[in-house]
Structure formats: C-alpha cells, structure tokens
User: Fold these one by one.
Assistant:
Number 1:
Amino acid sequence: MTFTPEMAKVGDILPPLSFGPITRTKLALYAGASGDHNPIHIDTDFAKKAGLQDVFAHGMLSMAQLGRVATDWAGIDRLRGLSSRFTALTPVGATVTCEGRIAEKFEQDGAPMLRIALTATIDDGTQTLRGEALISAA
C-alpha cells in the first residue's frame, strides 16, 4: 500500500515485517552495533545464573523493526514519535513478525496525524512488544 494521507483510514493494516530466526551470532552482532553488551543477551552461563534457560534478544532489536514498519510505509520524514512496551522475552530461535494498524486519525496543533498501533509477535504467538508510532499525515 502506498502512503496517501487522504486514503488512510482507521483500521487499515500496514505491510508486516518479519525477521529471524534470532541466532546467537545476530545477538553478538547487534551487541557490537548497538553498544549494548549486557551479558544477559550474549552469555549463556550468565543467563542461566540469572535463572533463565538461555540468552534472549535485545528488546531494542525488535523495537527498531517496529519503527521500520511505520517508516517503510510512511517515510522516515513523517515519523513524529515512537514508543513501545516490552511484554515478553524473544528467545533464541524465534522469528519475529512486526505489524501495524492505523488506530486513530486526529489533529495535533492543527496538523493531521495518524496513530499507528504496533505489535511484535514471535512464531509461537507470544506478543513481545506493543507500541505506537505517530505519523504526520500532512
């Protein structure tokens, strides 16, 4: 779907984005690229000592993909805000699907805006993030 503010309606679904499976190599590469070297994401022994079965993906890795759902659809220049809540861990081996839906059309300071509801879900159906993007429709 091509972004056209005039055509956007509440309930419209944005093209989904999937990535994965999450591998230990991807976690190590993301740690290096992001500067987030928290051992809970890359050191199995550390994760087990913390009471977990294994390491898990950085939440910001999935949040970045949620942002891509909005910006791939509307363009980076229209993004006015992005927020999310982490709701579950993303384990090694999982594939993540990020989705968006237009939840609201409104005006902010006289400018037309869209509120996009965003979710990230792993292949077993567990929702790992939920959030929203604010998109300028001007």
Number 2:
Amino acid sequence: MKMYQQTLSLNQKRRGCHLITSEVEHALPQISELKIGICQVFIQHTSASLTINENADPTVRVDFEMYFNKTVPENDPDYEHDYEGADDMPAHLKASLLGNSVTIPIRNGKLALGTWQGIYLCEHRNYGGSRKLIISAWGE
C-alpha cells in the first residue's frame, strides 16, 4: 500500500462555489501511481466547505449560492455568534450542511469522478481569506 499527503493553499476566492478539481489533481500528482485507491480532500476551516457536483454548467454553482442564502439567511436576530459580521454564523451553518471533506475513488491513476462531476470549494464568507486543504491518497 502507498500513502501520499499534501497541503494545498488556495488563494482567497469570492463568495460562492468554485471548481477546484484541477488544483487538487495538480497538488498530488502521485495519484497517477495508484491503480486503485481513495483520495480524501479535507478543508481546515469552519466557514467554507467542500462538495462534489456539476462541473459543466456554471449556473449550478450560482443556484447553490442562491439556495443556501435563502436557506440560511444573514442578519437573523436569533444568532448569538454575530461579532464577526453578518455572514459569519450563516457561513458556519452552511459549512456544516455541506461538510468539510469529500472522498473520491482512484481508478487507473485518476480520480474516478463521473463525467459531469467536479470538486467544489464553497466559500461562505464575503472575505474568507486563503483556504487550506489537506489531500490524502492511498492505495495500490
């Protein structure tokens, strides 16, 4: 069994969902050495998240942002955690709904994503800053 791990720092991105599949693939080229395995991508933040979804039509990512803004609104007077700005507590909730990691099979040296699938970084803050990911891959 082979195991690889790399940290990837992403530059600050605007609020919304961003395809990062190619950045993940470039950060851990050793994936190409694995015939069969698993890749896990983990984000080390509580106000951004990761998910896998549509990689072709960018309006899907726009609709994701719209849906989550409707579902988890800013300026809710019931929020107690509000000292970091109106987008902070909603960002934590959105990140918990989507999650902090994705797991992808590796087949013949490549991420075995479906034809229309890509890895999203979902930035839930207006000014979230750079984001760090830990990418781990293991297999044979």
Number 3:
Amino acid sequence: MNVVSRGFHGRGRDGDVKLPPGQYLEHGFPVLQAGPTPPVNTATWTFTITTETGDSTRWDWKQFTALPAEDITTDIHCVTQWSKLGTNWRGVSLDTLLSDIETNAGYVMARSYGGYTTNVPLPDLRDGKAWIAYSYDGKPLHPEHGGPARLLVPHLYFWKSAKWVTGLDLMLRDKRGFWEQLGYNDYGDPWREQRYQGD
C-alpha cells in the first residue's frame, strides 16, 4: 500500500531566484499527500472552530462562501524542497473566522477529512497570515490540491497548510500533528530550514 504519494524528491535550483535554503523553483504544482484524496462534497462540508473550553462555531459551505473573502498572491514552499512563486488563491482570512471567538489558546490543531492533523501556533494564523482557501487560479480548488477548501499558511512549509480542512481545535498547550509525530519540525519555517525535529 502506498502511504506517501510520488514526488518526494529534490531537483536542481533555478537561476538567481531568491528561495529559502535547500529549495528549487517549481513551475508546476506537485501533488504530495499521505493517503488517497478523500471524496468531499460541498453539500455536506462543514468547517468548525472549537475553543479550549469546548465552545464551537460551525459554517456549512453556503455560509462559509458568503463570508468576506480575499484574493491572495503568495509564494509556497514544500518541505520536499520545491517552491512555487506567485500563486493565486481566494479564501476567508482566519482573522475573519476568529473575530467573534473568545479564546486564551496559544496553539491550534488543524483537522482534515481523512484524519490528517497538523499543529500551528495561533499567532501564525492571525494578522493576515492565514486563510481557508477555496479557489486557486480563479477556479474552485481541485480535490488533489485540497479542495473544496484547505488551510493556507504560506509562511510555513506547505504541510502546515492542511488539505481538505474540516476545522481548527484551539489549544492551551501544543500537541503534535500527523507529520510532527513522525519527526517533522513542530514549527516548519522554510527560511530557517526547519524540516525535522531538532532543525
């Protein structure tokens, strides 16, 4: 059984483009994931934010896509060493989603269809740093890239931008997600090359 999809390899670097250390410039959009693409229907899709006290706020697809959205142009960096520059997304800012939620949490666990999880410090999702994206290059986000919606945290390695996101659990203490339990760095800053625990 294939657990990790093909494409986990490196290549040479391109020209004089400013990239994080150890990265190469990618012109395509590789599909990398642990496990198969889950079938997610927008008719049953929900996104839930649960606080450390157990209070929850939930949106269905119609409610979610009616929220104020933003167009985002950003570079993305995968831990497998590729970087893609100037990608175009549309989504709802986490600032919008968290605006009416009271919390003392410092950390977040993102949860996805298929059981994937990843941990992120809550400050890394605020102040215009993160979105729940549902469009890429002007089209609905394709399932292989996390559609109908994925977390987008472009200043961290891309495994932190959980595909097929279903919600965020706000936590007082940090816990490791799927890849972090398998040895990936808890934070994942590409400019500091934080690929693995201890980096």
